[in-house]
Amino acid sequence: MAVLFSLFLCVASVTSSNLIYDGRVPYSMQNAALDTSSGPFLTAVKGHNESATHYSTLLGHSALPTPLWNTAGFPPTEQVISIRIDNTSVFVPGGGPPQFGFRRTEFIAQKAGNATALDAEMETGVTVFHFSIKGDGQRPLNYSHEYQVVFIEPSDGTHVFGIQLGSPFTNPTGALPAPNAHSFKVLDHALNVLFTATFSPLRWHNFAVTVDWERLTLKVSYSIEGSALKSVTSTLMNPTATPGAIGDFHFGVLKLPIVNQKDSAADKSDVVHHGIQEGTTEGLFYSGVFVERL
Ligand SMILES: *[C@@H]1O[C@H](CO)[C@@H](O)[C@H](O)[C@H]1NC(C)=O
Ligand SMILES: *[C@@H]1O[C@H](CO)[C@@H](O)[C@H](O)[C@H]1NC(C)=O
Ligand SMILES: *[C@@H]1O[C@H](CO)[C@@H](O)[C@H](O)[C@H]1NC(C)=O
Ligand SMILES: *[C@@H]1O[C@H](CO)[C@@H](O)[C@H](O)[C@H]1NC(C)=O
C-alpha cells in the first residue's frame, strides 16, 4: 500500500523535476501543523486573537480536491484546505495598527520554514503558479465586497498579479453588487483585467499563471474541474512590474470593506483601517497549489 501510494504521488506531480514548491497537502499532514506554520504554509496572516486552526482546516477525506491533479483515482493525493474569515479576522502586522478595515486569512508559501528564501527561488526566470479554487457551500462570499484571494506581494504592497472576486472597491460606493461581481478577475500589476471567468462555487476552478520574472510578462491558463488547462491569454507585458520586485505568494480570503459614510474623507479611502464589515463567516476551498519552473 505504501509503495502504491508513492506511485500515485509521482503520477500526480506535473513534472516533478521542475517542481519548486508543493502546497498540495498530503493526508499525513495534520491540522496542528497549521498552528505552528511547520508545513508548506506560513499561517501568520489571520485574526490576531485566534489560532490558525480557528480560520483554516485540512479537510481530510470529507472533501475532494481538484480532479485536475488527482488523476490516480481514489483516494486522491491531497487534502482540500478550507480557509475562512469571520469578524475576528483582524490582522495586526508587526509594528502596525490593527487592520480593522479588512477581514483576512491567508496562507503564504514557504519551504523549510522560510518564505523569503522560497521567493528568491521561485521568482526568477519563468515560473508557473498553480492554484485551484472552489466555494465553501456553507460559507458563501458577499459579492457586494471585493475579495483578493491569490496574489504575489512585494514589500511595497503591490501585487505582481492578483485574483479578485466580488465587486471592486470604489469610493464613493457604486451600485452593488457590480456587474462582474460573480467573476474571477485576473489582474496584472497595474490592475488591468487580463481574464475573467464566472465563479460557480460548486466547481473547482484551476488557474496557472506563468510569470516571466526577467521579461516582465504574464500568461494565464485556466480550466474547470478535470479539464486540461488551456491558455486564455497570450504572453502579455506586465507594464508596471519592476525587475527584482519579488514577494510572498499568498492565497486565502482578504475581504475589503464598504465605505462608511460617517468616516472622514481620508478614512473613507483607507480601506485597510476603516469601513464597513458585516462580520459574516465566509470561506473558500483550495487545492492544487504548487509552483513549477518552465
Ligand atoms: C465586528 O468587529 C468590529 C471590530 O472589532 C466591531 O466593532 C463590531 O462590533 C463587530 N461586529 C459584530 C457584528 O460583531
Ligand atoms: C483582541 O482582543 C482584545 C480583547 O478582547 C481586543 O481588545 C482587541 O481589539 C482584539 N484585537 C483584534 C485585532 O481584534
Ligand atoms: C530565510 O532566507 C533568507 C534568504 O535566503 C535568509 O536571509 C534568512 O536568514 C532566512 N531566515 C531564516 C529564519 O532562516
Ligand atoms: C453584504 O454586503 C452588503 C454591503 O455592505 C450589505 O449591505 C449586506 O447586508 C451584506 N450581506 C450579508 C449577508 O452580510
Which short descriptors sum up this protein?
294 residues; seven-stranded antiparallel beta sheet; mainly beta; globular; disordered N terminus; Jelly Rolls; nine-stranded antiparallel beta sheet; 16 strands; 34% strand; binds 2-acetamido-2-deoxy-beta-D-glucopyranose
Write the layout of secondary structure elements.
Blueprint: H1 2-12, E1 19-22, H2 32-35, E2 41-45, H3 52-55, E3 56-58, E4 81-85, E5 103-109, H4 115-122, E6 126-135, E7 146-153, E8 161-166, E9 183-188, E10 193-198, E11 205-212, E12 217-224, E13 230-231, E14 236-237, E15 248-255, H5 265-268, E16 282-293
Antiparallel strand pairs: 1-16, 2-5, 3-4, 4-16, 5-15, 6-11, 6-16, 7-8, 7-15, 8-9, 9-10, 11-12, 12-13, 12-14
The site of one 2-acetamido-2-deoxy-beta-D-glucopyranose (NAG) has 3 residues, from loops.
